[in-house]
Structures are given as C-alpha cells and as structure tokens.
Specification:
The protein is α/β, with parallel strands linked by helices. The protein has 25 helices and 13 strands. Helix 14 packs across helix 16. The chain starts with 27 loop residues before the first strand and ends in a 10-residue tail after the last helix. The structure holds 8-OXO-guanosine-5'-triphosphate and manganese (II) ion. Manganese (II) ion binds next to helix 15.
Length: 560
C-alpha cells in the first residue's frame, strides 16, 4: 500500500507559468495521460488550473498527487517507477498519493483539494519479493545473453532452442503473429530475471506472461518438460516448416504451400522439380553451410573484407557490424553491415561499386540488391513488415576461405549439389545496407536488433512518448499529424512510394519539425528560412511536398 504522507511545501504562492494563480501550492498534481488521452488531460488541466490547482506539466519528485483514469494502481506504479528510474528517486514513490480521477473531479467541483479517502485510492498489490521490477517493454530491460533461466528455457532434448521460442516459431509457421509475439515476450521476460525461477510464485507480478506461457512454464517446473513443446517439436509440420524455411529465399507462405503438397525438406524441392527463383536456387545450393551458425571469428573475417571493399571504393566511408554480433552474440545466422559516409549524399551509388569490388576478388557467391524491401519480403527470408526500411540493401552470400583452425569444424558439410565438400571455404549469408549519414544513428539502432527489442522500442516510443521511431527518423507523431491532419498520409497506397519520395518524406518531416519548433506556419519560405541547413534543392522538394499534401498523395507510413 502507499502510505499517506505529504511533502514539504517548497513553492511560493505566485502565479504559475501558465498565468493562473495557484491557490493550493502544497498539492502538486500530475495527471497521467495513458488511457485518458491528450485532449481530456488537457481539458482537465486547464479546468483545474483555472480553479487554482497546481497541475504539473511533467512528473517530478515534487508531485504529491498522481491521478489517472482506467489504470490500475500497479500500472500507475509501474509508470512512475519507469519515469523515476534514472533519477534514482524510487524511494519517494512510497509517499505519493496514487488516485483515481474522481478525486480530481470532485476536488474541482468543490473548488479545493479534497482529503484523500480510501475510495479515491488506486489499489496496488504487495511488491513481489523475489524480483526487482521487470518492465513491460523489452526495450526497457536488460536481456543478458547468458541469463539465469536456461534450465527452464532450454528444451529437454535440445540445447539450441528454448521451449517458449519453439512455440513462438511454430506460431510464426502458422502465421499467428499475436501468439508468436506473446511467446517471444514471455521468453524475453524470463531472460531478464535476476535469478532462477523455481516456483510459479516467483513469476508473480511480472509483465507479459500470458496464461498459455504460464501453463507451459508450470509444466516444465513440475515435470521437467512441457508436453505441448515436445509434441510441437516432433510434429511433422513443424520439422518440415523449419527445414523448408531454412532455405534462403523461402518464406512461410511458400513453405506452407509445399508442405501441403507433401514436400518435407530441401531435397524434395529438387526431386520434384519445383520451380525455384534465383534466390531459392542459391538457398538450396548452399543449404548446409547457410544453416550452420556463423561464428564471431568468421564475422570478423568478413568484416575485414567488406571494410577493404568499402574504403577502396569510397575513402572515408564507415562500416559498422550490426545485427546479433553487435549485441555481443557469439554466433549468428548471417552477418549484417551498415555502410555510410560522413558527407551526406556521398554514399549514393556506392553499393554497386562495393559489390563489383567484392565480385572481382571472387568473394561473392550470390547477390541481390533491392531498394524496396516491402516488395522483396513477400517470399524472401524476411517476414514482418515492421522490420522493413527503405534503405538500399543487398542480400548476399559470401565465399569465405577457411583458415586451418576453422576448417576442421566444417569438414564433411557438403551442400545439396554443387557445393564444394572440401574444407577450403564455406558460404555465409551477408546483409549489406547503405544509409545516408543523417539517418545513420536510426539505421544503426534499427539494425542492431533484436527484433523484439526493436518492436517494443517502437511501441514504447509511440504509446508512452507519442513519438514515432523508424530506421530513418524519430519524430513527434502528434505535431506532425496536427499539421497534416494526417488524412492524406494515411490514405495513400504503399505502392505510391518509391525511394525518392521516401527520402523527401524524411526530409520534409525534418523541415516541418523545425517550423513547429519555431512556431512558424509551415511554408516553403519558413522552412527555408529556418536555418536548418537545408540542402540546395530544399525549396523544390518542399514545393513538391506541399503539392503532395494538397493532392493527398505521396507519402504515408511514417505516420502510421
Ligand atoms: P541472427 O544472429 O540470427 O542473424 O540474428 P539478428 O542479427 O538479430 O537478426 P537478423 O535477421 O540478421 O536482423 C538483424 C536486425 O535488423 C533485426 O533485429 C531486425 O530488427 C533488423 N532489421 C531491420 N530491417 C530489417 C529487414 O529488412 N530485414 C531483417 N531481417 N532485419 C531487419 O532494421
Ligand atoms: Mn543477423
């Protein structure tokens, strides 16, 4: 429970910064916007202030009364813990009033802050004893590579995939996105725990653990294994889907179609003479190598090659290793790179040159460049559109010469057909992405992963901060939608986008933000005069944007 204790008055009775006279300075109220919405909060804030209440703009230690609508006490507590963590002010939470909105509305009606009564108070559950607070969004918590619950999360007959992750993957094969995410969230929460889970009580008050996950965990805690996980893992469909989607270039849809036609593994694709596209042919050819984990050493060797290529074609270019290896993983399924140059625009046209350089050295077994990963993704190895961005990107397969020490591990790993069976080289999947320098920070963040982390980071930005984050930019959704009234953005078809329009969209949003910051009306002239070091082509680009807005076409998804 939250003890009642009022803080010391520190503020003098003067008109506040909003021009209203504050009559009740010792009661500092903060209204939580979550579930209430911005407009209702703003209405209540104005009304309260007009009656002399002190309503704070943001949460701080001086707040004495937190009011919220339709949130539980635990939710409010979690919100506050989250707000105060960096400032190490957790101790002060216990002296706060956590109240239902009725306290504020009744107080406003009475024109004076009411004595807090029990019915106003939000009920909170007792603190879980076993754990520190684990927050709801994956982006808010640490998920160490080596965590405390491997005994629980590593499946009985395999040390490579965790039970909840098997169920998540199975849900993905069934195209059940909700269930996939739910299992991934549960697994991520277990990894974040500071100690071993031994009993179900240890999981009390943790976020993101749904009934289904809890049932599975319970079975494992009690019986050492979960029947559902074991059945799933052994099912013909799961194994076939795993084998077929294990072919580079084969997505869930194609794999499912082939499964229903009776095909079970990559050799069935060849045996039955399935029509395979160029990517899938490479996928089958290098199947064994591409399904063997890539080690950190191998990633570093490839990093050296790509680094050479990049610097050779454009001096000063920057190469960053992203993906799992940037998160510190020891192995991965591919190697991801981001390429940029400190001079904006210098990176344009770089990709083909880098690829030619690599090809000339005999390092490429396969490559396919794309500017539009939305279209590419349909049958590619990538599944969910929220991971996608608009950068120029190359899916490739590298030929990596094996050093003596590595080659021992790959001996006998012959591919499906043409692949060399000797130990002298192996095939490795490599993703190359080129980003303009101005978007490099967002691109690095986005490409570092993990997928759940990125997903939750975006969700958190949107739901808790009212910001929109993509691999290209971060901006205040509300301010942008205010100006555009968003209709034209929402109703535009995805296919209307090409990369140029997209670049301009990002650019446009930046101009817009400047105008909003300087409180100028958005116009070509104002944007140009804003001192945002706009490139030379600014005004024509902006003119185009204004016309896009007027004719309700052009750009879309950043607002979604
Ligand atoms: P891995 O060790 O299995 O390779 O794991 P990973 O490195 O974490 O996954 P990945 O599939 O190689 O993707 C790296 C990260 O890039 C992911 O976390 C994903 O969120 C991010 N990402 C993007 N855009 C795209 C995209 O278009 N496709 C893929 N696959 N990932 C993307 O930002
Ligand atoms: Mn990767």
């Amino acid at each position: 429970m939250v003890p009642l204790k009022r803080r010391k008055v520190t503020h003098p009775q003067t008109p506040d910064q909003h021009g209203e006279t504050c009559k009740f300075n010792d009661v500092a109220i903060f209204i939580i916007e979550r579930k209430m919405g911005a407009s209702r909060k703003s209405f209540l804030t104005q009304l309260g202030r007009s009656k002399g209440f002190r309503i704070e703009e943001s949460y701080s230690p001086s707040v004495t009364h937190v009011v919220s609508e339709n949130n539980t006490g635990d939710e409010v507590q979690a919100w506050i813990t989250n707000e105060t963590e960096e400032k190490d002010e957790k101790a002060s939470i216990c002296s706060l009033h956590l109240l239902d909105i009725s306290w504020l509305t009744e107080s406003i009606a009475a024109e004076s802050p009411l004595q807090v009564q029990d019915r106003h108070r939000l009920k909170t559950s007792p603190k879980p004893s076993a754990h520190v607070a684990v927050k709801s969004y994956a982006c808010q918590r640490r998920s160490p590579l080596n965590h405390h619950n491997t005994f629980l999360t590593v499946s009985a007959h395999s040390n490579t995939q965790e039970p909840l992750e098997i169920l998540a993957e199975n849900a993905e094969f069934m195209e059940n996105e909700g269930r996939n995410i739910a299992f991934r969230r549960s697994a991520s929460v277990l990894k974040a725990l500071p100690r071993v889970v031994r009993r179900m009580e240890d999981l009390k008050n943790l976020p993101c653990l749904g009934g289904h996950s809890l049932r599975v965990i319970k079975e494992i805690l009690e019986d050492g294994a979960s029947q559902e996980v074991e059945t799933t893992k052994q099912s013909e469909q799961f194994q076939a889907m795993k084998a077929l989607t294990g072919v580079f270039g084969v997505g869930v849809k194609s794999a499912d179609r082939w499964f229903r036609e009776g095909l079970r593994n990559p050799s069935d694709l060849i045996r039955t003479g399935q029509k395979l596209n160029h990517t899938q042919q490479a996928g089958v050819r290098y199947y064994n190598d591409l399904n063997k984990p890539v080690t950190k050493k191998e990633a570093e060797a490839i990093s050296d090659m790509v680094g050479k290529a990049v610097r050779a074609v454009l001096p000063g270019a920057i190469l960053t290793l992203t993906g799992g290896f940037r998160r510190g993983k020891e192995v991965g399924h591919d190697v991801d790179f981001l390429i940029t140059h400190p001079e904006e625009g210098a990176e344009e046209g770089m990709m083909p040159k880098v690829l030619k350089w690599l090809e000339d050295q005999g390092l490429l077994l396969y490559q396919k460049t794309t500017r539009n990963s939305y279209l590419e993704s349909r049958d590619g190895p990538e599944r969910a559109p929220h991971h996608m961005d608009r950068f120029e990107r190359c899916f490739s397969i590298f030929k990596l010469e094996q050093t003596k020490e590595c080659s021992g591990t790959t001996a006998g790993a012959a591919g499906m057909s043409e692949q060399q069976s000797g130990p002298s080289w192996r095939a490795v999947r490599v993703d190359l992405v080129v980003s303009p320098y101005s978007q490099f920070a967002y691109a690095t963040l986005g490409w570092t992963g993990s997928k759940l982390f990125e997903r939750d980071l975006r969700r958190w930005a949107g739901q808790e901060r009212g910001m929109s984050l993509s691999n290209h930019a971060l901006y205040d959704s509300k301010r942008v939608s205010d100006v555009l009234s968003c209709k034209c953005w929402r109703h535009t078809r995805q296919s209307a986008l090409n990369s140029n329009t997209f670049k301009r969209t990002v650019f446009f949003i930046r101009c817009l933000t400047v105008c909003l910051d300087t409180k100028k009306k958005f116009s070509v002239e104002n944007a140009r005069c804003s001192g945002n070091s706009l490139p030379d082509q600014a005004s024509s680009v902006q003119r185009e944007f204004l016309s896009c807005i007027r004719s309700a076409r052009g750009m879309t998804h950043l607002c979604a």
